[in-house]
Specification:
alpha/beta; Rossmann fold; Tyrosyl-Transfer RNA Synthetase; Structural Genomics Hypothetical 15.5 Kd Protein In mrcA-pckA Intergenic Region, Chain A; 6-stranded mixed sheet; RNA binding; aminoacyl-trna synthetase
Length: 429
């Protein structure tokens, strides 16, 4: 058995931990779990950090269980939430459960060995429990003072918290107790914001089963401004679903991480050895301008979340705008969706096909036709062309009086590059 805790420590993946866990893990295969709420139809990059706990756990020889919170999602976790969650219709929760269950299969081994992963849904064991039974069998064992002391509750006392969300930790605690009794689970893991919920389960197991259980939390993955990535955090979502966050957008996000951030992320997401990761960090620190770590993490995570093919397309798309390595052949090979994703943030200029047909020269196209958006005058356009500063569809323009008879990308687009960093997408209608 590999030393799971030692592995997490050097990776910087431990925020809180219950003492005695290393001895517990060293004796034999342990079953541990993490829960994910289906409050959206996709997991996000913050969830991937906690998923990596399970991945490293399984690679250390232990058995991972993923619990999709079909029941607890109907209540809502108050952790790190400034206000009450809006209730989701049950049919949406069921849909989200299916989507997330499919996503999980990409990251763990569900097929082979005694420690193959399992997905469960807490709706299966919570739906038939009566309110009175729950109060007598669970609520009786957890004092109000104990519940009030949790950070997830204290943060909300002043702004207001309903009994529904206040009682959330009892439901999650019962999950741990149920899994202990029925699946032999002795370890629960999660993000740092879940510590209070995890320890409620430990307390319930101690009081009802007279047994010891354990917990580990990982530091939260936050934006540079400290805001937690989450399914309901506006502007903070980097989704694992390609229809919500494209492979290109995921690749770009990771590629733009700071050196400080990426040295933490390589340890979290890389499944290679400590020696290999440390060698990468040393090589990056020697020549940080090459952004070796950013490229490695971006490629590694995009491949893991999507596929090697999707990652390759994302790399090509990235270089279309930010490198002169790729030619017009790679640009024309992009699908229309990929092209629009690459060009999502650059200015769009709309012209008609009739207008394009009547333009007599490149300098007119860049100035008069675009009403000065790209070039303020024909003379400016002529100077930029003379200094080799204009490319259209990755073709260097050398003749200012050339007629713009390019083959349009997908029969309707022209990508104009002005200098090294300024791009415009002309949309022909």
């Amino acid at each position: 058995m590999k030393n799971f805790v030692a592995n997490l420590r050097w990776r910087g993946m431990i925020h809180d931990i219950v003492p005695g866990i290393e001895e517990h893990l060293s004796n034999s295969m342990v079953t541990g779990y993490i829960g994910f709420e289906p409050s959206a139809s996709s997991l996000h990059l913050g969830n991937l950090v906690t998923l990596m706990l399970l991945k490293h756990f399984q690679e250390a020889g232990h058995k991972p269980i993923v619990v999709v919170g079909g029941a607890t999602a109907m209540v809502g976790d108050p952790s790190w939430k400034a206000q009450e969650r809006l209730f989701l219709p049950e049919e949406i929760i069921r849909h989200n459960e299916d989507c997330i269950s499919q996503q999980l299969k990409k990251f763990l081994d569900f097929d082979t060995g005694k420690n193959k992963a399992v997905v469960l849904n807490n709706f299966d064991w919570l739906r038939d429990i009566s309110f009175l039974s729950f109060l007598r069998d669970v609520g009786k064992h957890i004092p109000i003072g104990y519940m009030m002391a949790k950070d997830s509750v204290k943060r909300r006392i002043e702004t207001g918290i309903s009994y529904t969300e206040f009682a959330y930790q009892l439901l999650q605690g019962f999950d741990f107790y149920y899994l202990y009794l029925n699946k032999g689970v002795t370890l629960q893991m999660g993000g740092a914001d879940q510590w209070g919920n995890l320890t409620t389960g430990i307390e319930l197991i101690r009081k009802k089963a007279h047994a010891q259980a354990f917990a580990i939390t990982a530091p939260l993955f936050t934006r540079s401004d400290g805001i937690k990535f989450g399914k309901t955090t506006a502007g903070a979502n980097v989704w694992l679903d390609a229809s919500k966050t494209s492979p290109y957008e995921l690749y770009q996000f990771l590629l733009n991480c700071t050196d400080y951030e990426v040295e933490k992320l390589i340890k979290v997401f890389a499944c290679c050895s400590k020696e290999e990761i440390e060698a990468l960090i040393v090589a990056h620190q020697a020549k940080p301008e090459t952004r070796l770590l950013q490229q490695t993490v971006a490629k590694m995570v995009t491949t893991m979340v999507h596929s090697e093919e999707a990652c390759s397309k994302a790399i090509v798309s990235s270089h279309i705008l930010f490198s002169n390595v790729y030619s017009m052949h790679e640009l024309y090979a992009l699908s229309e969706d990929d092209l629009l994703t690459v060009c999502a943030t650059i200015p769009k200029i709309h012209i008609t096909q009739a207008t394009l047909n009547t333009v007599d020269s490149i300098i007119s196209l860049l100035s008069v036709t675009t009403e000065g958006v790209i070039m303020t005058s024909k003379s400016e356009a002529k100077r930029m062309i003379a200094s080799h500063g204009i490319m259209i569809n990755k073709v260097l323009i050398t003749d200012p009086y050339q007629k713009p008879d390019f083959i349009l990308l997908h029969s309707r687009y022209l990508l104009v590059q002005k200098g090294k960093k300024n791009y415009y997408l002309m949309v022909v209608q």
